[in-house]
Amino acid sequence: MYRRRMSTIDSSSPSVSSPSIFTPTKPTALRDQSIDDSGSLGSSKSDSSYKDGNSNNKDRDSKLQNTRHRLVYEYQKLQELSIKGLYVIPSFTSIFEWHCVLFIRNRVYRSSVIRFVIIIPDDFPEECPVVKFQTPVFHPLIGMDGEFDLTHHFHDWKPEKYMIGHILCYIKNVFHNPDKYNYPALNPEAEKLLKENYEEYLRKVSHFVKLSIQNVYNNPQHTPIVFAEEWKDKEKFEATKRQILKKDSPTIVDSFKAFFTRK
User: Fold this and answer.
1) By C-alpha distance, which of 262, 238, 258 is closest to 250?
2) How many other CB atoms are there within 10 angstroms of residue 101's CB atom?
3) Region 8-33+52-236: CATH code
4) Cis omega (within 30 of 0) on the bond before 136?
5) Rounded-to-integer distance, Cα 16 and Cα 220, Å
6) Strands, E, within the chain: which ranges?
7) What InterPro entries does the annotation carry (predicted)?
8) Residue 30 half-sphere exposure toward CB, CA atoms < 13 A
C-alpha cells in the first residue's frame, strides 16, 4: 500500500514521558543577520565587531545543533512510544518539518486516512510547534483550511513538560473523542451539528472519510510519505516488507541521526 519512505509508529499508546536532559535553547535563523546594500551578509568594519560576529555565529550554530539533538531525541522517544496507526517522518530537507499520516481504526472517524504536518519553530522547544492538516476533515476543532489551534490545550507549553509526542497523542484523542474538548471551534458548522443534529454530523463526517480514502494516492508535493497503487499487489508488498525488516538494515532513527546531526 505504501512505499517505505516513512517511519512506522504502530503499537500501543502509553503516556509520553517528559524530557529532562536538555538545556532549553533558542536557535536563531540566519535571516536575523544583517544584509548590506549588495544583498550580502553584512561585513564588519572593525576587528572587534568581526570577532563579535564570529562569536554570535558560533553561538547560533551551537544553539541550532542543540535543537537538532533535542529533535533527534524526541523522534527516538516517539519510536519507543509507538502510537497506534501513526506514521511519522521528518522532511528530507528540514528537521523542522515532520510529515504524519494517521489511520483511524474505530469510532466516528473510522477508516479515515489523515495527513498533517508538524511545523517546528526556531525557538523550539520553548515555543510550541504548529500543526497543519493536509487532508480535509469535518471536525469542530479543525478549520476547512487545515488550521488546528494548539494554544488552548498546550497553553502552559514548557520544554520540561511537553514533547511532540504529546501533540500527536492529543491529535489522536481529538478524533476519538470529538466532543471531549470544549475549545473554540474552527469549524462552527461541525460544532453546531455535533451538538444539535448528530445524525447530520455523522453523515458529513462519513462524506469526508470517504474522500480521504479516495484521495489516499494523491500524495502531496514533497511529502516523504508516499502511497502507491502498485502496493495493492500483496506479493510485492510482502517482498518489500521483508527487505525493509532485514536485521542488518539501518533503522530510521540511525539514518535520522546521521543526516540531521551532521556538521
Assistant:
1) 258
2) 21
3) 3.10.110.10
4) no
5) 29
6) 8-9, 86-90, 97-103, 113-119, 130-133, 147-148
7) Ub_conjugating_enzyme, UBC, UBQ-conjugating_enzyme/RWD
8) 6
